[in-house]
Write a structure and sequence with these properties.
The complex is a heterodimer of chains A (359) and B (293).
Chain A (H helix, E strand, L loop, with lengths): L3 E8 L9 E8 L4 E5 L6 H9 L6 E6 L2 E2 L10 E4 L11 H11 L4 H14 L15 H14 L4 E5 L7 H18 L2 E6 L2 H7 L2 E6 L2 E6 L1 H6 L4 H6 L6 E8 L2 E4 L2 E5 L5 E7 L5 E3 L3 E10 L4 E7 L2 E7 L9 E5 L5 E4 L11 H9 L1
Parallel strand pairs in A: 3-8, 3-9, 6-7, 7-8
Antiparallel strand pairs in A: 1-2, 1-4, 4-5, 9-10, 11-12, 11-14, 12-13, 14-20, 15-19, 16-17, 16-19, 17-18
Helix pairs in contact in A: 2-3, 2-4, 3-4
Chain B lengths: L4 H33 L2 E3 L6 E3 L3 H8 L1 H34 L4 H13 L2 H11 L6 H8 L10 H29 L3 H10 L3 H31 L1 H7 L11 H11 L3 H27 L6
Antiparallel strand pairs in B: 1-2
Helix pairs in contact in B: 1-12, 2-12, 3-7, 3-9, 4-7, 5-7, 5-10, 7-9, 9-12, 11-12
The chains are: A alpha+beta (359), B mainly alpha (293).
The structure holds adenosine-5'-triphosphate and magnesium ion (MG).
GO biological process, one term (chain B): transmembrane transport
Subunit structure (chain B): The complex is composed of two ATP-binding proteins (UgpC), two transmembrane proteins (UgpA and UgpE) and a solute-binding protein (UgpB).
Membrane topology (chain B): Multi-pass membrane protein
Chain lengths: 359, 293
């Protein structure tokens, strides 16, 4: 177990091509569960694989514990990796798969056996120890891959979308198991996913990547409540946050000519972010022309347009009748403001800002 | 849809007819002929034949010349198969590392494969030419007077080298595609689990190549036993003399040159039994362990 430090880490695959990852700084505390999240192609796997030693580091430094590992062999980094397609050795039994890494490190037979048996018990794999991977279900293979990582007792676990080959239900179960297991073992973990829900539920801290750069690092709720940019705002949370072009006119935030809130800002264009679940139906406010409604049971998602900008509202009372146009409002604390050109968050939510201004 | 019972029964048979006819005419019929004539002693001038029972077979196994040929064939097959497989595997592993080069590599080696056996044999003759063959000169540097077709061992060596050379490309292609079909993540997992490259090769890569390797083992054995005929014939310039020959070549020499139809047929039958045994062995192995996914 150890901390993990990435400083100014970058990766350029071919000379002259665009960097796949650049300027990444992350300090991971001992025992912390960090989730790298971002859209496809943003460099999550690349970053993880650099930590594993499967890709060369073209810029910056990676430290595991206090040891600089940029040029250390993957086998000597004291990490264990769980791959998306499990990457089990098809010619070895479950036991063989788990024992392989330990054998190569010259552990005693007795020690290997004990650890394999223990991991198998923990993952409920004991009945399958002598089977080959092809005779296992997807979920069982996934657990073997976990077991293979656990028995090594590494300084850090690296996961590259380990659940994405499982069906939705199993994914939720395994997600919980991974989290419990990590808590119990207290092993520092770096976990890659493109599923924001998985990221939210697993992480101690999220690292949102965009185009190879860190967009925001923070605890899930912190990122959810205070997205640092429109990118993060749109990526974290489901359904996605509504981002609307708006104007500040004389301290009033106007969306498509309708008043939304008072803000202490200079006049000019802004992007306003409103989470569908923060919007409430009311008699006044922004008019939403309904396009279609998704019924989810406990709630319904109303999709429509404010002016000609698309917007969604999560409505918690799905039985109430709807007219063609509804009005929505949001509490001041739930209004996020972003710079229209840079997409960066302008500052704290409106309420805090007003509170500070009056204080 | 209504189906006529008549059609569904006879149509497949009808469609298979050409194939069945070919097998019948070019395999079963000659095989049957061989089996039959192996029990007869044929008059060299074709004036009739006498039933002799197992005499032809007994004569075969009492003949020291036949046993010597059989011995050579075994050694030859083992050597050709071993070197053709191991050299190809080595090349494939190297090529797999520099994947970009693999394509040109592949094309180059395929050329050798495309070379027809007589041409291959001819090239071998040039390379081993007594007076100016490059390999002969190379061996001469070490004080080795290499004499193809004059020296039993030297001829055998030339045959093995030519046969191996000819078979490497096929093996290479199969090994390379076998290597490339090993999932990248599995190799990477091994990279994390094992620091020694050679240990990784023997514990992960090699076992995963086993299906390909086993298939090639059968192919190469068959090749060395039977398909080297053309090459050997060219090297021996159709005149074996005291040089080593393989069993298949002996069938030809005894049957067509020696006009010993009965003995030659008996030899063919022995070879057919060998093929049968190989096939059974292959099916049993494939059924058993060498299958992963
Ligand atoms: N071996 C490689 N050679 C060249 N470019 C690569 C290589 N691997 C990845 N890239 C590029 O680097 C960028 C980041 O890729 P990466 O695989 O890290 O994305 P990712 O975030 O893991 O995406 P996904 O969610 O689809 O797995 C992509 O633009 C990709 O095209
Ligand atoms: Mg990826």
């Amino acid at each position: 177990m150890a901390k993990l430090t990435l400083s100014q880490v970058g990766k350029t695959y071919a000379a002259g091509s665009q960097a796949a990852v650049s300027g990444v700084d992350i300090d991971i505390a001992d025992g912390e569960f960090i989730v790298l999240v971002g859209p496809s192609g943003c460099g999550k796997s690349t970053l993880l694989r650099m930590v594993a030693g499967l890709e060369t580091v073209t810029e910056g430094e990676i430290r595991i514990g206090d040891r600089l590992v940029n040029h250390v062999d993957p086998a000597d980094r004291d990490i264990a990796m769980v791959f998306q397609n499990y990457a089990l050795y098809p010619h070895m039994t479950v036991r063989g798969n788990m024992a392989y890494g330990l054998k190569n490190r010259g552990e005693s037979r007795q020690a290997i056996n004990d650890r394999v048996e223990q991991a198998a018990r923990m993952l409920e794999l004991t009945p399958y120890l002598d089977r080959k991977p092809r005779a296992l279900s997807g979920g069982q293979r996934q657990r073997v891959a976990m077991g293979r990582a656990i028995v090594r007792e590494p300084a850090a676990f690296l996961f590259d979308e380990p659940l994405s080959n499982l069906d939705a239900k199993l994914r939720v179960t395994m997600r919980g198991e991974i989290r419990k297991l990590q808590r119990r073992l207290g092993t520092t973990s770096l976990y890659v996913t493109h599923d924001q829900l998985e990221a939210m539920t697993l992480a101690d801290r999220l690292v949102v990547l965009n185009g190879g750069k860190v967009e925001q690092i923070g605890a899930p709720l912190e990122v959810y409540n205070n997205p640092a940019s429109t990118f993060v705002a749109a990526f974290i949370g489901s359904p996605a946050m509504n981002l609307l072009d708006a104007q500040v006119e004389g301290g009033t935030l106007m969306v498509e000519g309708h008043r939304l809130a008072q803000v202490a800002r200079d006049a000019g264009p802004v992007t306003v972010g409103l989470r569908p679940e923060d919007l409430v139906l009311s008699t006044s406010g922004l008019p939403l022309r309904i396009d279609y409604v998704e019924e989810l049971g406990a709630q319904r998602i109303i999709h429509g347009f404010i002016g000609d900008q698309p917007a969604a509202v999560a409505d918690g009372s799905p039985d109430a009748p709807l007219s063609d146009i509804v009005h929505v409002t949001a509490a001041r604390a739930d209004i996020h403001l972003f710079d229209t050109t840079t997409g960066k968050r302008m500052d704290l939510p409106a309420e805090t800002q007003i509170a500070e201004a009056t204080a | 849809m209504k189906r006529a019972g008549f059609d569904s029964r006879w149509l497949p048979v009808f469609l298979l007819m050409p194939q069945l006819a070919i097998i019948l005419v070019f395999f079963y019929w000659p095989a049957w002929q061989a089996l039959q004539s192996s029990f007869y002693l044929e008059d060299p001038f074709g004036f009739g034949s006498t039933f002799v029972g197992f005499e032809n077979y007994l004569r075969l196994f009492r003949s020291s010349e036949y046993l010597r040929t059989a011995g050579f064939t075994v050694v030859f097959t083992v050597l050709v198969t071993f070197f053709a497989l191991s050299i190809a595997l080595l090349l494939a592993v190297k090529a797999d590392k520099v994947l970009h080069g693999a394509r040109t590599y592949r094309t180059l080696l395929m050329w050798v494969y495309a070379v027809a056996p007589p041409v291959a044999g001819f090239i071998t003759l040039i390379v081993f030419n007594q007076r100016w063959g490059p390999l002969t000169e190379f061996f001469a540097l070490f004080g080795w007077d290499f004499r193809v077709r004059l020296d039993y061992t030297d001829t055998a060596i030339a045959m093995v080298i030519a046969s191996v050379w000819k078979q490497i490309p096929v093996n290479f292609i199969f090994f390379l595609s076998g290597l490339q079909s090993i999932p990248r993540a599995v190799r990477e997992a091994a990279l994390i689990d094992n620091r020694s490259a050679s240990a990784r090769f023997w514990t992960v890569t090699f076992p995963l190549l086993a299906p390909t390797g086993f298939f090639l083992l059968i192919i190469n054995t068959t090749y060395a036993l039977f398909d080297t005929f053309g090459l050997i014939d060219t090297i021996l310039r159709n005149n074996p003399g005291d040089n080593p020959i393989t069993l298949v070549y002996k069938v030809y020499v005894d049957g067509f040159r020696g006009q010993d139809i009965g003995g030659s047929s008996a030899q063919s039958v022995v070879l057919m039994v060998l093929v049968l045994a190989l096939t059974i062995f292959q099916f049993r192995m494939v059924d058993r362990r060498i299958h992963y996914t």
